[in-house]
Amino acid sequence: MEGQETFPPAADATRSLPLGASYPVQGQIFQGPLHLLVHLAERQDVDLRRIHVGQLVDEYLAVLRSQTELPLTEVGAFLALAGRLVRLKAEWDPQRLLPTSEDGQALLADLRQLQAIHALAERLAGRLRPLTTRPPWRPKPPLSERSRRRPEELVEAYRRLRRRVGPRPARLPTRLRHPPLAQLSAALEERLRKEGRFVLSLEELWPGERGATFLAALFLAQAGRAALQQEAPFAAVTLTYRRPGGP
Amino acid sequence: MTPLLRRLEALLFAAGRPLPEHELAAALGVRLLDLPALLDQYRAQLTDRGFELSVSEAGVTLLPAVDLQETVARALRRMPDRLTAPVLEVLAVVARYQPVDRSTIERIRGVRSDRSLAVLEEEGLIEVAGRGEGPGRPVLWRTTPEFLLRFGLKSLAELDSLWPDEA
Predict the structure, then answer these.
(1) What SS3 state is found at A41?
(2) How remote is the C-alpha of A172 from its chain's centroid?
(3) Spatial contact of B118 and B103, defined as CB atoms under 8 Å apart
(4) Which residues of chain B have a CB within 8 Å of the CB of A124?
(5) In the structure, what pLDDT confidence band is assigned to residue B140 with cuts at 50, 70 and 90?
(6) Does ipTM surpass 0.85 in this model?
(7) Contacts with A162 (C-beta within 8 Å, 6 or more apart), sequence order
């Protein structure tokens, strides 16, 4: 192809894997689609700065086609990347070595980043020492462990806490500052029945408890015994009586 | 060995954890400025011994000599078999981009990483560094002083020398 002659791929990129070759795509080896793609690129010795997009896409799709035992939960991620790659290949300009689209460049940046992380992890593995300091220096149990307690352990922990801090205090009696809402609504309805209509004063029913009067009015409106009207925000609220069964 | 060096050795032996340099200097009654020379004197006496002096940002401690690490670990059944390649990969991401949240790690790797993070936390190699500002205020992770000891690093700045040049 003309494109390939004009822009030959990097040194060993032509040494491609046979299409349809079988690869062990398993959790232990390839944790995800990006890992597989990086592996394919590394296996070809492809420099990700001089990537041969078309070939890499073909190989990724070939590997994916050959996999029949991918768990369903993983297939979506692999297919999503496949779709991205196919679009990338379709947009790829053979006169240019690297993809020019924003998504293509973002994907390449992701691959380069993961490749560098692989290299760092390998170098760290080479320096890993099995031992550090002697006991009793132990790491704290992880948060996830601490939150994975069984119910009986939680109950026992609660009992220990109770023993430590003493018995649970008796519940404080609840004291309403105003009569119950039903009683306030009945008083409001009584006045409405007599007067038919009046402007509501928010301290009508219980001095200092504006909320109680307003709630009682809402309660009446909800029960269909009164209509509330307000001309503007913060303006006075007018209550009109509605006879039971009336309009 | 001078009385001061003997005291230094006893302190490091008994501490069982890396001692910060200021703490060590105070315990020995020496100036912080004089501590490096003292540690050098002690290190010079440790040739052909079964342990070595480790001085890093984690602190000053005694560790089994590098060539004996595997032998001792096998005898004590403390092989780091939990640090598999994926776990080390997550550790590399945390080390490089710390403090970092789980979603960033998973975006870089393209796969879920919660189990690897749990293993690393259990091993004492990472710890919670606070919470991010993003949606849900995600937990941020960073490496611990134990990380420096386990990988023989003097400081986090040394990680730059392990990062590939071309990246």
Answers:
(1) helix
(2) 40
(3) no
(4) 88, 91-92, 95, 151, 162
(5) very high
(6) no
(7) A168
